[in-house]
Amino acid sequence: MKMNDLIHIRRAFHQIPELGFNEFKTQQLLLDTISNMEQTRLQIKTWKTAVFVRVEGRQDYTIAYRADMDGLPITEETGYSFASKHEGAMHACGHDFHMTIALGLLDHFASHEPECHLLFIFQPAEEGPGGAKPIIEADVLGAWQPDEIYALHIDPNLPVGSIATKPGLLFANTSELFIDFQGKGGHAAYPHTANDMVVACAHFVTQVQTVVARNIDPLDSAVVTLGVIAGGTKQNVIAATARLEGTIRTLSMASMEVVKSRLEAIAAGIEASFACKIAIDYGSNYCEVYNDPELAEAFAAFSKTRKGITFVEAEEAMTGEDFGYFLKQYPGVMFWLGVDSPYGLHDSRLQPSEEAIGIAIEHMVAFLSAKKPR
Ligand SMILES: [Zn+2]
Ligand SMILES: [Zn+2]
């Protein structure tokens, strides 16, 4: 595929962002694009909105490459001529880039026999409810079990031409957080007859601030962020309900358990002191992204030899990624690809540089061509 075709495909994906497990048009566009490639070495399988493509190689060793497919419920503000046509949805996390790069790689190896078998995984629902875990649990890959797995994520903070990763922990454990308060409403002038959930909620929010500060080892970081607070219906009515939404991020599974048990203890205390009911729902949980140390070192060493690539030693980040579930199952590496955007991931103005698409394809074609079984 020529660079122009790839840019065209990226822009086509960009116009049809779809949310988790609703990537129907996206799946069709993937299948249509793949059907125009050399077919002799390819085997294609779909599951829900996912697409899997196996490329027969010379050696009986399988290397998987994963690209996520979903967009976000964000209204685009890039001003692009090829902006999202799906109102209220946007590819604001670069998954349009991820798919395009994977297609570029796939196209190359469809017409150039790879050394090892390759398995391209186009995975739905990364942003939620999570697509990697169900693919593994349903054993969708069956006989196509990878020996190694790779994936990239665009990084708006890095200049084009840079690649960053590190051995071991790359991304944190994450959990969503939804907390519902149920009390008794009433007239604003008769507080003694009601049970005010705005006040209970305010106490909860304040107490939660001590969890990270007082319960987590300072050398083992955690984050508890409550991003949404909602409650009540009218200025002169005591609120019968309130709701908080947030996220938990930790570097270790043990800290995740500590945070959750502290939140539950605080909730029990507020329930007792305000005579209300509090329900905590953790929504989707993503486990940490842990790079196989040996493979990450090898990938870094290879990257450092490549002209035009600046290799950067990545730092651990508190972002979440469901690629972590694949890395629990198969050794592999996730890395950042510099795309130099003034606006970050999940920003309605994210503008990754399309120049990075060709750079990533060239880099991974070289890497996968040189790759030998361990
Ligand atoms: Zn994202
Ligand atoms: Zn993403």
Strand-helix topology:
Blueprint: H1 3-15, H2 24-35, E1 42-47, E2 50-55, E3 59-68, H3 95-111, E4 116-123, H4 132-137, E5 148-155, E6 162-165, E7 168-171, E8 173-182, E9 186-187, H5 197-215, E10 222-231, E11 237-238, E12 241-250, H6 253-274, E13 277-281, E14 285-286, E15 289-291, H7 293-304, E16 310-313, H8 323-329, E17 332-338, H9 355-370
Parallel strand pairs: 3-4, 3-5, 5-17, 6-16
Antiparallel strand pairs: 1-2, 2-4, 6-17, 7-15, 8-12, 8-13, 8-14, 9-11, 10-12
Helix pairs in contact: 1-3, 3-9, 5-6
The structure holds zinc ion (2 copies).
Walk me through this protein's architecture:
- The protein folds into 2 domains: 3-170 and 288-370, Zn peptidases (Aminopeptidase, 3-Layer(aba) Sandwich); 173-285, Alpha-Beta Plaits, CATH 3.30.70.
- Helix content is 33%, strand content 27%.
- It is built from 9 helices and 17 strands.
- The protein is elongated.
- The model has no long low-confidence stretch (mean pLDDT 96).
